[in-house]
Design a protein that fits this description.
The structure holds three protein chains of three kinds.
Chain A lengths: L1 H12 L2 H9 L1 E4 L6 H22 L9 H10 L4 H28 L8 H23 L4 H14 L6 H9 L6 H33 L13 E4 H26 L22 H12 L3 E2 L2 E2 H17 L1 H11 L4 H21 L1
Helix pairs in contact in A: 3-5, 3-10, 4-5, 5-6, 5-10, 6-9, 11-12, 11-14
Chain B lengths: L1 H30 L11 E6 L7 E7 L2 E7 L5 E5 L10 E3 L4 E4 L4 E3 L5 E3 L8 E7 L2 E6 L2
Antiparallel strand pairs in B: 1-10, 2-3, 3-4, 4-9, 5-6, 6-7, 7-8, 9-10
Chain C lengths: L1 E4 L2 E4 H45 L1 H8 L3 H8 L9 H6 L1 H4 L4 H5 L8 H4 L15 H9 L2 H5 L9 H7 L1 H7 L8 H5 L16 H12 L2 H5 L7 H7 L1 H9 L7 H5 L9 H9 L3 H8 L2 H8 L6 H4 L10 H4 L14 H33 L4 H20 L5 H67 L1
Antiparallel strand pairs in C: 1-2
Helix pairs in contact in C: 10-11, 13-15, 18-19, 23-24, 23-25, 24-25
Amino acid sequence: MIAKILTWMDDRLDISAMRHLAVNKTVPVHRFSWAYFLGGAVLFLLMIQLATGILLLLYYRPSAEEAYESVQFIVAEVEFGWLIRSMHSWSANLLVGVAFLHLFTTFFMKAYRKPRELTWTSGVLLLFLMLGFGFSGYLLPWNELAYFATQVGTDIVGAVPLIGHPLMVFLRGGEQVTGATLTRFFGFHVAVLPALTTVLILLHLGLVQKHGISVPPKLENKAYKTLPFLPNVLLRDVLAWYVLLAVLVTLCAFFPWELGTKADPFVSAPQGIRPEWYFLFMFETLKIIPSSVLGMEGETLGVLGFGLAALALILVPFWDYLAQRMGRPALLTWLGVLAVIYMAAMTMVGYL
Amino acid sequence: MPKRRSLLKAFLSGSIAASLLSIFYPIVRFLIPPDKPEASALSVSAGLSEDLAPNSGRIFRFGSQPGLVLRRPDGSLRAYSAMCTHLDCTVQYRADLQHIYCACHEGHYDLNGVPISGPPPRPLEEYSVKEVGGEIIVSKVS
Amino acid sequence: MRKTIFGRHYPVWGWAGLAAVLLLMFLVQPQAYRGLASVVHAAEQEAAEGAQSEAQGDGAAEESHQDSSCITCHDVFKETPIGDMVEPFLKGVHARAGLGCESCHGGDPSTSDKELSMSPDRGYKGVPARGDMPQFCGSCHSSAEYMRRFDPSLRIDQVAEYRTSVHGQKLAEGDANVATCISCHGVHGMLPASNPLASVHPANVADTCATCHADAELMAQYDLPADQPQLFKASVHGAAIYERNDFGAATCNDCHGNHGATPPGVESVAHVCGNCHGVQGELFSESSHEDIFQMFEMSACVTCHSNHEIAKPGEFMLAGEDSPCLQCHEDGDVGMEAAHAMAADISRLAAHVQEARDLLTRAEQAGMEVSSAQFDLHSAHEKVILARNLVHTIVPERVKETVAEGTAIAQSAEQSGNEAFEELRYRRTGLFVALFVIALAIVGLWMWIRRADEQLEESRQSA
């Protein structure tokens, strides 16, 4: 039956190349091959976000007067609205977590080496887009925590030298965080970021299929076991997705996402405002930088530092090439370990 | 072993179908709009237009707060928050005085919601009110 | 030296010179603009000021009084007591009505000859004696025909009222220290009470009265305390006026009268307070304590609430150590037991309503729909207010009745809140069902994977 459908499509769309790829695609098997499921997990969570996001879009209203009430309506009146909303919020957090994990595993397995540099670059850009999704989406319920977290976050953007202020005004839709900011973030969240993500994902996945799955350096030029993608690895992928779904459902059951209180711009910020956990390490870093360093404002230095770090992340394949040329192939790995420890430590500090 | 294989297949397809059902059932229920099409904090029905005679008013529920809808003697509709601006008691319409009145401390408001006697310090919050299809619809002034 | 660009010749120094001039203009321009701007700004300001003063109408009064020699001469000494009344007068209500200095003082404003303009032959009356002020002002302000020309809505009985007041009576006895018309209204720059700058505007009345009534030395001569204005400002009425600009609240003249100023007698205090506090006044007048208070010549409202330093009331007035009930009652007697019972009932209900409100807010923040219960809770809150009113009946049973009604509502609201949290827990159960189904699917998939792997092994071995 399936064969008949495929032949029908092949006669009209010429999918023989794709079929050949799918049937012959293999995945290496070794100690760390569990990491190969992470990319697919990110994709799965992204699909969940897309689905729940579209469902929420049917009832949500992106204006300061109505946003909170519309989310309240979804959660209290619409059948299973509480579930869709909780899923969307929890899946967002899981997505960012799994994306970071995917980043770390591909980094430590050196999957970015030639010819996969563009895969890495598009992946890092995708990570930034996911963080953008998180930041923009967090404001949409227009509750107190989100309002002040956005204020703090966009204030930090304003600390970038030269372009910081115009950038902040662009993000906020004005000098302050207002209803204009909400509408703007909504536009970013449902149109701009999805469009950019689609383009980058097609590139990223297309490159992955073209180059095949990489192996860690130790296994290169050696024999290793493989499994065919269809059906063995795909079944395992689906299993991983079901497990992820189970985790999501458990989180929604035990930690349903709260509504909070409606944002009131005239109330002073409550104590202990902080961004979501995936921004926490940056937030804590800014807090420990002294207010003035070498004549520059501490915050500006911090923001510049993050900018440089982001650039460095994009250029990782290049650093590795340099390290190889210098004869110190393990250097990058050690830097990576330090970075991971730092991020983990600063995130924990934020919760103390 | 064919029997085991078909049992396995049945179990597998059954469980996957059930899991897909438990995913799509909430989605389908979600897509069907609830009875109340809009958040009650934004816009509510305050009853039938014909039930509100000139020079009369009634209390209705606007989200979590009381509202007062009244028809002036000339037939025009007004709607206000029924929370007295003094100490949040619920005001009422007094047809004998053509005033809005709060029984807690004898506060009087005129039919524009402006206090004219007694302790209320501020006018009542005004809502926007329309007659749509024989029903009185009250919403917050944007 | 001639260079070429695109085959055309051009002089280097000429272009360099032009560039230098442009650069200089660019650098210097802020300075030039600033100089130009300040000239324009100054001109604009002058024009604005001119427009503003015209709008205020000073110009109109000034213009019509420009011909008055009184104004012209006395204005020269505007920094001294001889001339400092000119400006306030021109801004005041008499000048706007078209009256001049001669309207009260007589004399001839058409001549600038000092002897003639201030000659008794031309009607000059000079400065009236303090004790003659009521009569002096009353010569216009008590005449209905005269006042009708200017403001038909103004009363014309102020002098008559004044003569009945403590101030008026003392003045008749020969005491010139008491307040007369000018003490409160000012001498020259009189403004109507609706004007926030007027000495008799509700926001300023207490300060005007305080000029004498806060003077301890002066008040000692009449055996009066001098702390009333200060006490008043500390009261709820003072807070309403001075902090919230709520001029509906009572100030000195609302209770004491303005022209007929006399402290209300013991029998009339309740009526005076009851003008605004109608509900409590009525309830008290029907209570047992009304007659008892009259018997002991105790003031109805003042006994418990004080007259000037009226504080925000609460249950502490029934049950606290400083309870005004203790002025007559003793701890443990029937009266204090009743007071404690009322206080306990009301506090309990108020606390219950607050607890229910907090519970519903928590449920709302968790995402549950509780607006209907929150709506009902308003009625419970109202019962607390009504119960506090009913304290004035001095009948604990009536308070208890209302408190019981409120408690029933608060209880049902609380129940709705609990049901909302139940619903949250119920959802958890539903999700466990979904989890179970997903677990089944996982098991099924795992079995399928095993079978696929087995098949793969078989196919590889046979290859």
